[in-house]
């Protein structure tokens, strides 16, 4: 009796997984795989040495970070993107408590474009640049606006 109950439960689970897979396949829910792409771009920045990048890639496949990111994208982010039109992992926009909207866009060269829009002021545009021992923020005219340096401990 117990063995047939276990067999029936396994059959129900298998049928549920199969039907869910068919549902996702029939909706055309492909998505942009944002989490997987972010992981890939992070892997590109690990080291300039191609063997180090390859080693990190192999480690993240074995651990299994890449497969987990793929499954997370397939089940969650791509489904949300398909049904809502917006990928929750793609958002780089924030709203502060005082109503400012902050938008961040990563460039291919490692710099970050920052736009701060206040409700009552013109938008402020900055370019955040990682430097050797600090991080610099530059205005539209290329002038230094701020620099952050790690404090001595």
Summed up:
With 153 residues, the chain is α+β, with helices and mostly antiparallel strands.
Task: Describe this protein's structure.
This protein has 153 residues and is α+β, with helices and mostly antiparallel strands. It has helices at residues 2-26, 34-45, 50-62, 65-84; strands at 93-95, 101-106, 112-117, 124-130, 134-138, 144-149. It folds into two domains: 2-84, no CATH class; 93-149, no CATH class. Helix content is 46%, strand content 22%. The protein has a six-stranded antiparallel β-sheet with strand order 1-2-3-4-5-6, with no helix packed on it. A hairpin with a 5-residue loop joins strand 5 (134-138) and strand 6 (144-149). Helix 2 crosses helix 4. The longest helix has 25 residues, at 2-26. The N and C termini lie far apart (67 Å).
SSE arrangement:
Layout: H1 2-26, H2 34-45, H3 50-62, H4 65-84, E1 93-95, E2 101-106, E3 112-117, E4 124-130, E5 134-138, E6 144-149
Antiparallel strand pairs: 1-2, 2-3, 3-4, 4-5, 5-6
Helix pairs in contact: 2-4
Subunit organisation of the chains: single chain
Poorly predicted spans: none
Approximately what portion of the residues adopt beta-strand conformation? 15-25%
Let me know the average pLDDT: 78
Keywords:
alpha+beta, 6 strands, 6-stranded antiparallel sheet, single chain, 153 residues, 4 helices, 2 domains
């Amino acid at each position: 009796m117990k063995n047939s109950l276990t067999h029936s439960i396994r059959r129900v689970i298998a049928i549920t997984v199969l039907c869910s897979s068919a549902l996702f396949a029939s909706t055309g829910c492909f998505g942009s795989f944002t989490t997987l792409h972010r992981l890939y771009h992070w892997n590109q920045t690990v080291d300039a040495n191609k063997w180090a990048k390859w080693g990190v890639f192999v480690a993240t496949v074995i651990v299994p970070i890449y497969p987990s990111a793929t499954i997370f994208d397939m089940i969650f982010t791509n489904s949300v993107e398909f049904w809502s039109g917006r990928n929750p992992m793609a958002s780089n926009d924030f709203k502060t408590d005082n109503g400012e909207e902050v938008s961040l866009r990563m460039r291919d060269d490692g710099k970050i474009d920052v736009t701060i829009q206040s409700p009552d002021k013109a938008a402020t545009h900055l370019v955040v640049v990682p430097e050797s021992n600090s991080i610099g923020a530059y205005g539209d005219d290329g002038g230094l606006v701020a620099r952050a340096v790690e404090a001595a401990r």
